[in-house]
Design goal:
This protein is α+β, with helices and mostly antiparallel strands. About 45% of the residues lie in helices and about 20% in strands. Strands 15, 16, 19, 20, 21, 22, 23, 24, 25 and 26 form a ten-stranded mixed beta sheet that branches. The termini are far apart.
């Protein structure tokens, strides 16, 4: 109990268990309550630095207005209103999303379950209980096709010998049924002496009637995340008669799983609510900050520094020329302002200018950017090119904020099985008695069965070897034989490999028929003679062991150990290995086949008895049971007799080779991380075009006992080789040689042990391709983190896989992509994006990723350009206003700049498309802009600020020429003047959006016209006629009429965009002519090709 273990009493012993020790079974995924919503959501929103900044600006406005610390020329609501509107919108979206979670919680917690109540007047009876009220120690009844409401240890079921089946699809997505077992002693106590032919209800009723006489307790391990491991013990009886029976992973049914092919089951609840495996595995995907967001954060700091710099310059001008400007009656009517503020003049005016220039940081940036991300995610999810009709699986987006990250990937880390291959296994070839049977053909299944039979008839040695081989193949597994809805026999296997091996054994004459209790039943030969193998122990397969074995009593009474596993693991434990077997394995690997080695050993009775005692002690351990069982199994799996090898084909997915070729042309480096042996991975590499004939393939396959000096020497040699390749690339006029690296998991372990990670990374990053073989899931994640943290500048990494063993790698990468495959949905659930097949990665990166990155860069640069334009114009205006801190625009007008006039660029960020999708796919090299970060960086930011400075100068020059000496035709008032200039800016901004947009559609035009221009026109008309909307209401009366009646206003309205267009067009022409990017060159070549085609197609005269 001190280690977190629990003691659960049930049935007749239930009254002795104290209550209140375990959590409720209610599941809560909702984030907020009625009382915590406001503070929690406010805290979350204040984690965004921009929100904190604008709250600070709003406080400055309030202090300036009501405390007379300094002058303010804007109302606090001009900042507070848009800030509160954006924060309220985000809060409303969060509340709606949380309400959906809350309703789902209520539906789940309110479901009804059947329980068995022991005690009271009726002694025992069936009742109902809501899921949320289920407690540890309750006994629940579950029927076929029902879902388990908690983690339950079964006490009895309708299956023969206590065998039942569950579907874990809700938990891990795997579609194969899993075998679960009732402890034989409990099954015998509750269902013993009952005819197997009895119908389900009477059998259930009889078992329930026996329950009050059963006293017992369960010792269970502390709650754990592992859905494949469980350690505990069941004690039945009372006093000295109580016996302890071990509980393992096959003796617990987890919440969320579904009972299948079993009429009924009842069991004891051991874990509830947050302690269940399902709840403990319902963790959120780690929060990932997009690389573009990191650049934006740095740009925000630069913008803040620029704002402070402009404020300091303005204060300096105020201090330097204050004595002159104070003499101007229209700037300081009272002649002096020394006594107006509490703060010193220079300090007060610093805050005044800081507030005026606060528009430099766009307040609506985050909110509008989220809208763009949402729409981009919608386009990805509704792209029919990434819809797999066979699986009915579209692309899915779980992290919309990473949509533009897809356009910046530099490294792709890919699993092989189920990702590059189909994970549909077929046994193709076998090695038995020094001979190879079967060929790799397009036809499904194993075609060497007749060949094996003929060889066995002709040679007794081959016949004996074949029988030993097939015995391991047909008996050493955990496959379950069942029937489908049409009554046809089928196999339920925990892995496709096991299913393929048992299917092939059936073709070769050893037909696995099922299990009767602990006996495995196999029909052998044409006559179908049944053989029963009593399974005495099973040593399960784990990724660390890389093998599984069973101890059986054969029909002849012999005790045999049957083993199958990876070749290197089995060979290490074999007494001897045939000389030709290694050559056969190499041949299989050269064909890209997955290999397993089969072995056996006959055990003596005393040897097995001693081992079984140790095995039972390990089974009864509550803590570290898996480690103890592995240690015990290690003692038995020695001096093995190798009986043969299998070679399984896992065919490539459609379009894999073409997708990998496109990724390589795009400049993305590909790392394939697989558990296959080196030669298999090498040949899969060539077939998928991961490796090519022009590559120099270096291999790091060091012995586990290699010394540090020897490993360092190999690294130095590899570093010299990659440096030579780089030198050749710089000097040679022909195609350069490219380096590829293959490394094994054992070598990676030695590199990590000796601290050579950085040296290995230097070599690996100089290679075009890296293939890591025989690597564990943790090593996959280690490699991803090594690249992310060791390569500078820090690259964007993408991991793609389909199995639960790929989850660490997927979560370690900046972008995780899950494949909806046959290994379950854990990879999909943990990923940021999911697709049905690897080939869809081409569309995800080269089409959507590239477009989203370009759109995001345009949006961000334009947002800062737009605000810098306004701020520079306000700065210029201070020269006319005597650096008095006067705002050129009315307060509401000034505040609308960050909200209303942001939406035109949002339309561009959603719909803009510079090249057709087919062009982007045909020319993957266009992807380099995002990969190299050319779309948004410090240089681009400086260019945007310089452009804003030029456009502000144009606007100011036109303003001075139009209104500098006063307007003799209309009243030259301050608000008409400011409204005229603001209107010019509105049209200038919308022109600029048009200039940077490559494609225009009707939706874009609608957003630009109605969301910006028309809203400003209508807003100004309303502001001019509703006095209470502004503190300057009377002064704004009929400003719109006065403005449009002025001819100079219309001249400026045309001149400002026209002059801006001239400057922009000239700059664009210079860049296109002298500094073109890949896209510009590609479009130019395409235009020349089209024109040349038109020229050749013209008819000529005879």
């Amino acid at each position: 109990q001190d280690a977190g273990c629990r003691r659960v009493l049930f049935a007749a012993s239930r009254g002795d268990m104290p209550g209140g020790r375990f959590p409720s079974n209610a599941i809560r995924t909702a984030k907020y309550t009625l009382f915590t919503f406001v503070p929690l959501n406010l805290m979350e929103q204040m984690m965004k630095l921009a929100n904190v900044y604008f709250v600070f600006v709003a406080l400055l406005l309030i202090l300036g207005k009501y405390a007379s610390l300094y002058a303010v020329s804007a109302e606090p609501m001009s900042t507070l209103f848009p800030l509160l509107a954006l924060m309220s919108t985000c809060a409303a979206l969060a509340l709606v999303e949380d309400r959906q979670r809350s309703r789902a919680d209520s539906r789940a917690n309110g479901q009804q379950a059947r329980n068995i109540v022991v005690g009271g007047e009726r002694k025992v009876h069936l009742g109902t209980v809501q899921w949320k009220d289920i407690a540890v120690g309750d006994i629940l009844v579950v029927r076929d096709a029902e879902e388990l409401p908690a983690d339950v240890v079964p006490l009895a079921c309708s299956g023969v010998d206590g065998v039942c089946y569950v579907s874990t699809a809700n938990l891990d997505g795997e579609t194969n049924l899993k075998v679960k077992r009732v402890v034989p002693a409990a099954q015998a106590a509750l269902c013993g002496d009952m005819p197997d032919s009895a119908c389900a209800p009477p059998l259930l009723n009889q078992a329930v009637d026996r329950l009050p006489a059963l006293a017992g307790e369960i010792l269970a391990e502390a709650p754990s995340r592992s859905i494949h491991c469980f350690s505990g013990a069941l004690r039945l009886g009372t006093g000295d008669a109580r016996r302890r029976h071990p509980l393992g992973a096959d003796n617990i049914l987890l919440r969320g799983t579904q009972l299948r092919n079993t009429a009924w089951l009842f069991g004891v609840v051991v874990y509830t609510g947050p302690d269940t495996r399902m709840a403990m595995n319902s963790y959120a995907t780690p929060s990932k900050l997009a690389k573009l967001d990191q650049v934006v954060n740095r740009i925000m700091v630069v913008a803040l520094a620029l704002q402070i710099g402009l404020s300091l310059v303005s204060v300096s001008m105020y201090v330097g020329y204050n004595s002159f400007f104070r003499t101007l009656w229209y700037v300081h009517p009272e002649g002096s302002d020394a006594s107006l503020f509490v703060l010193p003049g220079w300090c007060a005016y610093f805050f005044t200018f800081f507030i005026i220039y606060s528009s430099l940081i766009p307040i609506a940036l985050y909110g509008s950017f989220e809208v763009c991300n949402y729409v981009q995610a919608y386009f990805i999810q509704n792209d029919l090119r990434m819809y797999d009709e066979e699986q009915d699986c579209p692309a899915m987006v779980r992290s919309a904020n990473l949509c533009h990250e897809l356009g910046q990937v530099s490294y792709v880390f890919s699993d092989k099985t189920g990702t590059l291959t189909r994970n549909v296994m077929d046994l193709k070839r076998i090695s038995v008695a020094g001979q190879v049977f079967g060929e790799v053909t397009e036809a499904p299944g194993f075609d060497g069965a007749d060949q094996l039979r003929n060889a066995s008839r002709q040679d007794a040695h081959t016949a004996n070897a074949a029988e030993a081989f097939l015995e391991v193949l047909a008996v050493s597994h955990t496959v379950v034989a069942s029937t489908d809805k049409q009554g046809r026999a089928k196999y339920e296997a925990e892995s496709p490999d096991e299913g393929a091996l048992v299917e092939a054994a059936k073709v070769m004459g050893w037909d696995f028929r099922g299990r009767i209790g602990k006996a495995t039943c196999v029909a052998v030969g044409p006559s179908g003679a049944l053989r029963h193998y009593d399974v005495l122990a099973v040593n399960a397969f784990t990724s660390a062991r890389k093998r599984m074995s069973v101890v059986v009593r054969t029909p002849t009474g012999e005790i045999a150990l049957l083993v199958k596993g990876a070749d290197n693991v089995v060979f290490e434990r074999a007494a001897s290995v045939e000389a030709g077997l290694q050559a056969h394995l190499d041949e299989f690997a050269s064909q890209g086949l997955r290999t397993l080695v089969l072995a056996r050993r006959t055990l003596g009775a005393q040897e097995f008895a001693d081992w079984q005692a140790a095995h039972q002690r390990a089974e009864l351990a509550v803590q570290d049971r898996e480690g103890r069982l592995a240690e015990v199994a290690e003692r038995l799996e020695v001096r093995l007799e190798v009986v043969g090898a299998t070679a399984i084909e896992d065919k490539l997915q459609e379009g894999v080779a073409e997708t990998i070729e496109s990724i390589r042309v795009a400049g993305i480096k590909l790392w394939v991380l697989t558990g296959d042996k080196l030669e298999t991975a090498r040949n899969i590499g060539y077939s998928t075009k991961v490796l090519s004939d022009d590559m120099e393939v270096m291999v790091f396959d060091c012995a586990p006992e290699i010394e540090a000096d020897a490993l360092a020497a190999e690294l130095a040699a590899a570093r010299a080789a990659t440096a030579a390749f780089a030198a050749e690339e710089g000097a040679s006029m022909g195609p350069p040689r490219q380096a590829a690296l293959m490394v094994t998991g054992s070598t990676l372990q030695r590199l990590e042990d000796y601290g050579f990670e950085q040296g290995f990374l230097e070599v690996a990053t100089q290679c075009r391709v890296v293939i890591a073989c025989r690597v564990s899931p943790l090593q996959k994640a280690w490699l991803v983190r090594l690249v992310q943290q060791g390569v500078l500048p820090r690259p964007v990494t993408l991991s793609i896989g389909d199995g639960a063993n790929d989850v660490p790698m997927i979560q370690a990468a900046q972008v995780g992509v899950g494949i909806c495959g046959r290994e379950g949905r854990q990879a999909v659930n943990a990923a940021d994006f999911s697709v049905a097949q690897f080939r869809f990665l081409k569309y995800l990166l080269l089409v959507h990723g590239r477009l989203n990155y370009r759109r995001a860069c345009k949006f961000l640069l334009f947002s800062f350009w737009k605000n810098a334009l306004l701020v520079f114009l306000l700065f210029y205006y201070q020269f006319l206003a005597g650096f008095s801190g006067t705002n050129l625009f009315e307060s509401n007008t000034w505040g609308s700049w960050n909200v209303v006039h942001t939406w035109p660029i949002v339309a561009t960020a959603v719909f803009d498309r510079d090249v057709e999708d087919k062009q982007a796919l045909a020319h993957p090299e266009l992807y380099e802009s995002g990969r190299l970060g050319l779309g948004l960086n410090l240089a681009k930011m400086v260019e945007a600020v310089a452009s804003a400075l030029v456009h502000a100068s144009i606007t100011f020059a036109v303003m001075m020429l139009s209104f500098g000496e006063g307007n003799p035709t209309r009243r030259n008032d301050y608000f008409t003047f400011g409204s005229s200039i603001f209107t010019w800016l509105v049209f200038q901004v919308n022109y600029r959006v048009l200039f940077v947009t490559s494609t225009i559609n009707s939706i874009w035009i609608g957003v630009v016209v109605f969301a910006s221009v028309l809203m400003w026109v209508v807003g100004l008309a309303v502001l001019s006629r509703v006095p209470w909307l502004s503190t300057q209401g009377p002064w704004l009366h009929n400003v719109d009429v006065a403005m449009v009646q002025d001819p100079l206003f219309w001249i400026g309205l045309l001149a400002v965009p026209a002059l801006s267009m001239t400057v922009d067009a000239f700059k664009a022409l210079l860049i296109l002519e002298f500094f073109p990017d890949r896209k510009g060159l590609r479009l130019e070549r395409l235009a020349l090709k089209i024109n040349r085609g038109r020229l050749h197609s013209r008819p000529t005269r005879e």
